[in-house]
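Page 37, continued from 36.
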């Protein structure tokens, strides 16, 4: 920094001349800010301000902090800016804003979990273990004498419960272990033609086991089997059924994102767009588009009236509507 002509730096809130700085402790995490320039906000200083900001962005890889100081050079307020689509405070990054970012039919905009559907297949615990049956009476859809039944029996006994009880009558701790696995190592014992085989291990849980198999299989037949037998359609928890990634849903106009605007009734949407106020600069960019949206919403409103109302009501509406 000295070689590039800089003179002062802020370290952990204190300002130092670069000439006076000794070695910093490596074991301590320091906050270091390079001071580029100080100036009064006057018209004749605009070129200098521009150069200082440009230099700050270059040295900090796209970030600049601007502070307002009092006569004693104490900070009154400060604000951090970034030339990149990254929040300087929390680090939330953003892709380039393009139309495809707002489409759930595009991989750029679609929710990564439900792929733009708004819902997805999820395992339903009551489909995996029927709460009204015992493990011996069809609670698992896997027969009465299967390897799985013997495994579940050992899990239930480990928690000092009764395998002859209905699933709903077992202790919550036992039900949780059957579905989501055990923290304890459980002793399992199986009789084979070659003798008795015993071992101890944690039980994975039926829910986790089926979910793992579903995600790892390449067979469409097996995926369909799991979907039909153990799964149900549920609203995607990642996007809340909105079908888009968090990035496009974070873009807001007058406090509303694209999904919230799309969900509005026609009349409410018309009022929303009519109340958008633009600066002269913003009007040059989107003014024509905003007018087109308003016209189309007006046309949709008339179409609804044609469908749902009598000709007399439509005539009255047209008479009262302002002419464009």
């Amino acid at each position: 920094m000295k070689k590039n002509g800089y003179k002062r730096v802020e370290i952990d809130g204190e300002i130092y001349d670069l000439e006076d700085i000794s070695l910093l402790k490596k074991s301590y995490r320091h906050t270091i800010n390079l001071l580029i320039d100080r100036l009064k906000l006057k018209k004749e200083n605009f070129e200098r301000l521009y150069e200082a900001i440009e230099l700050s962005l270059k040295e900090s890889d796209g970030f600049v902090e601007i502070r307002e100081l009092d006569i004693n050079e104490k900070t009154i307020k400060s604000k951090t800016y970034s030339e990149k689509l990254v929040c300087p405070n929390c680090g939330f990054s953003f892709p380039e804003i393009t139309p495809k970012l707002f489409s759930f039919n595009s991989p750029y905009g679609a929710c990564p979990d439900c792929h733009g559907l708004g819902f997805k297949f999820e395992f339903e615990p009551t489909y995996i273990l029927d709460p009204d049956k015992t493990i011996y009476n069809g609670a698992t859809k896997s027969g009465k004498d299967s390897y799985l039944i013997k495994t579940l029996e050992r899990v239930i006994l480990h928690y000092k419960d009764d395998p002859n009880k209905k699933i709903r009558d077992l202790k919550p701790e036992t039900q949780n272990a059957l579905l989501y696995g055990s923290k304890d190592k459980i002793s399992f014992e199986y009789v084979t033609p070659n003798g008795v085989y015993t071992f101890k291990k944690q039980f994975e849980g039926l829910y986790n086991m089926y979910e793992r198999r579903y995600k790892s299989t390449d067979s469409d037949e097996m995926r369909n089997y799991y979907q039909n037998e153990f799964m149900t359609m549920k609203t995607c928890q990642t996007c809340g059924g909105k079908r888009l990634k968090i990035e496009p849903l974070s873009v807001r106009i007058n406090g509303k994102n694209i999904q919230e605007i799309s969900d509005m009734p026609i009349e409410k949407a018309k009022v929303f767009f009519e109340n958008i106020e633009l600066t002269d600069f913003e009007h040059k960019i989107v003014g024509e588009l905003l007018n087109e949206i308003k016209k189309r919403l007006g046309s949709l409103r008339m179409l609804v009236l044609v469908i749902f109302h009598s000709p007399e009501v439509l005539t009255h509406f047209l008479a009262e509507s302002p002419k464009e």
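The longest helix spans residues 280-308. Flag for discussion at group meeting. The CA atoms of residues 306 and 315 lie 10 Å apart.
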